[in-house]
Amino acid sequence: MDLATNPFKPGAGRVPPVLAGRSDLLSEFRTRLYQAREAGEGERPWILSGLRGVGKTVLLNQLGRDAAELKLIFVKVEASSSKPLAVALAKELHLALRRVLSSSDRAKALWSKAASVLRSFQIRVDPSGTYSFTVDVEPERGVADSGDLAVDLQELLETIGLAARGANTVILLAVDELQEASSGDLAALNVALHNLGQDVFPVPVVFVGAGLPSLPAVLADATSYAERLYDYRQIGLLDTTATSDALTAPARANGVDWEPDALAAAVTATGGYPYFIQACGSHVWAVRATDTISLQDAQIGIESARTEVEQGLYQSRWERATPTQRAFMSAMAVDDDAPSSMAELVTRLRKKRTTDLSVNRRDLIRSGHIYTPERGFVAFTVPGMADFIARQGE
Ligand SMILES: Nc1ncnc2c1ncn2[C@@H]1O[C@H](COP(=O)(O)OP(=O)(O)O)[C@@H](O)[C@H]1O
Ligand SMILES: [Mg+2]
Known about the structure:
- Helices cover about 55% and strands about 10% of the residues.
- It has helices at about 25-40, 55-70, 85-100, 105-125, 150-165, 185-195, 215-220, 225-230, 240-255, 260-270, 275-285, 295-320, 325-335, 340-350, 360-365, 385-390; strands spanning about 45-50, 75-80, 170-175, 205-210, 230-235, 255-260, 290-295, 340, 370, 375-380.
- A five-stranded parallel sheet has the order 2-3-4-1-5, with helices on both faces. Strands 8-10-9 form a three-stranded antiparallel sheet. A two-stranded parallel ribbon has the order 6-7.
- α1 runs parallel beside α2 (about 55-70) and α10 (about 260-270) packs parallel to α12 (about 295-320).
- The site of adenosine-5'-diphosphate has 24 residues, from α2 and α11.
- This is Orc1-like AAA ATPase domain-containing protein.
- It comes from Cryobacterium roopkundense.
- InterPro entries: AAA_16, P-loop_NTPase.
């Protein structure tokens, strides 16, 4: 009888049916992009930070759609520890320029210098890469090819930004998982953005980076002035109203309503965690038998969502960890989802000093289980991990 497809979208980066609780942030950003285009001038770079599964990637993608609607150019890359940031940037900028170059003769004239500079940048950072434009593009020797990434990136963004200004548009440059970039790459990025922002009339390039809550500290470690360079926004859990919206609006759009007690149970169970909201919505949707979701439907759905999330999110992390790493995380779980002090963990694990724990700490950070919210502390990257671990001991 159920012909309506499940509107909920559990899973990393999947566009939620309703992007709940983020409208203030989105409309502020949209206004800034609009102003950047009208003035032909850049904006302070933004950093969005938050735990895994709170919705940073979907926010970046929504910013990209908003930008496209304003006829801006959206370029997005994902930083990773296995690939230099410059290579990822060269690739995506190439695709974006390739598109504008082929759009019209006027565009070709406006963007050809930017394409030449990108070419010289690319030859320097990724000599073996294969990049082709639909028209011949000769590298602009001596620009953006010094080998000093900070200088080259600045020259590249400046040239592309000037072209964007001429074309009455803005480049929105987004980097997801920015904490994964090497410290050298981050330092170069900071320097380049800092210098671009100091122009009398900064070019219309708007940068937005997203990553784990450690990102502000990671950037500050790369260069001291990073604290003042970026506009930092924390992306947190959703409040009760937004959580209700996220669960009810997609259902209502498909002719289904929640009984008040069913909704209350689901809102409480999800704790406002967007990843879990989608999982819960999806499972409850699947078990309901009519166009009204009862408390019993909700309870069954919540339980199966919990089992799934537990396996996908927590169990897999737990199983990948070594016995000593598990002991380390169990000692952290005592603090629930709050950060744990390294000094306190030393006592709990009956060690002498914090250096006795540095190998576990480093490996758990590398594998993405934990991060450093501030010096001397560690915390879990996914909400609810502590609770899961506490239940393992039983
Ligand atoms: N504001 C929101 N409202 C409803 N669902 C959301 C929201 N933000 C994210 N989600 C959902 O949460 C999940 C995780 O989103 P994602 O962007 O991958 O998180 P992150 O990048 O922070 O790890 C996805 O299933 C997505 O659809
Ligand atoms: Mg993400």
